[in-house]
Amino acid sequence: MNYKKGNVYSEESVYKRHKLYQNKKKSRRKIIISTLLVLIVICVGIGAFYIITNMNRYHINDLVIQDIIMTRNDMKPFNGIIYDDNGKWGKYVNGKPEGTIKKFDINGNISSETNYKNGLKNGSKREWCSNGQLQFQAFYVKGKRNGLSQSWFCNGNAKDSVKFISGKKEGIEKTWYDNNVLSKKITYIDNEIVEEWRWNENGRLMLVPYDENAVREYLKGIDEEKHPIEGIYEYLPYTLAIIKIDEHDDLIIINLRETINAGEGSEWFSIGEVKGWIDPRISTLNTLNCNWVNADKSIVNHLVRFYPSSGNLYVVRDDKNTSNTRDDINFILKPINSN
Fold first, then answer.
1. Of the residues 116, 187, 194, 312, which has the maximum number of CB atoms within 10 A of its CB?
2. Average pLDDT, the chain
């Protein structure tokens, strides 16, 4: 029983109810204040984080982009985040990339992604075409390619494939035309070419390896009834055999004479090596299109004119079509007895 001013109340007193209301009001005030304090702390934290992260965030226009990236205002190695109009590149330490660096095209699509450690490529590197097709993929260890390296055309067809060991090519490298036809097959040992095959866009053989045994094995597979020797010619120190593969394919010129130390540049060629090939698709009745292999293995294109009356092959670099044929001749291949 509660007493107030001498009155007796059977129910809860007004005072007690008022006291309870005041306590609830204070409790709600504390909750609101605590919530506001938490929100203030969160906002201050977000603001501080934004300020800190953007203090070292630079647009590429504010930097000098070179091997070691510098800040344009003081020309010191840059530390922080680089971005351009299309996206964030990534982190740089002392002017060198660190971690994952991304580049973007004008549409904001990723064009490349490369991983770095201590400024050196370390891990995967990938590049994409504008249509999203993976264009290139390789792996690096301390700045050197290591493992399988591949690239593709933007239509998805394979472009090339080769294995690297500590930055050097090792094994077979294959290269394709964009129509998925094999273009080259090159064998490497310690980054040195030991064998090379080439084909044109129609898959026809253009060049057999610069290896005597490999060429001899290739020649063994030629059926002389179907692919006869068109003729044997002499151009000292070489003896050359022209072999017809078929009516649509290339004519291969093979060196048949040992030429080691037989003249300038002759040490480059031995018996069985390819000196050139003729493309009959470009050739005319009296003019053959000849791709000629120089002593340094470089390849140049010549016009080879054939005169049935003499049987000679006249090689000219620039067909001037002069009235005096000898004005155009660079050298003459003279036919010799094939026996």
1. 116
2. 77
pLDDT band at 37 (very low <50, low <70, confident <90, very high): confident
pTM of the model: 0.54
Backbone angles phi, psi at 147, to 5 degrees: 105, -165
Structure confidence by residue, pLDDT tens digits, 251-305: 667 676 666 666 665 555 566 667 777 776 666 666 777 777 776 667 787 777 7
ω into 335 cis (within 30 of 0): no
How far is C-alpha 30 from the geometric centre of its chain's CA atoms? 65
Cβ-contact 176, 167 below 8 angstroms = no
Measured between alpha carbons, how far is 320 from 235 in angstroms, rounded to an integer? 23
Do the beta carbons of residue 334 and residue 231 sit within 8 Å? no
Phi-psi category of residue 45: left, alpha or beta, with phi > 0 → left and psi -120 to 50 → alpha: alpha
Max Cα distance, the chain (Å) = 151
Helices of type H across 185-241: 212-220
Burial environment of residue 314 by CB neighbours within 10 A (0 to 12, 13 to 18, 19 or more): buried
Closest CA to 112 of 122, 124, 120, 104: 104
User: What 3-state class would DSSP assign to 185?
Assistant: strand
Dist CA 170 CA 189 (whole Å)? 5
Q: What's the pLDDT at 312?
A: 77
Q: Are 180 and 161 spatial neighbours (Cβ–Cβ below 8 Å)?
A: no
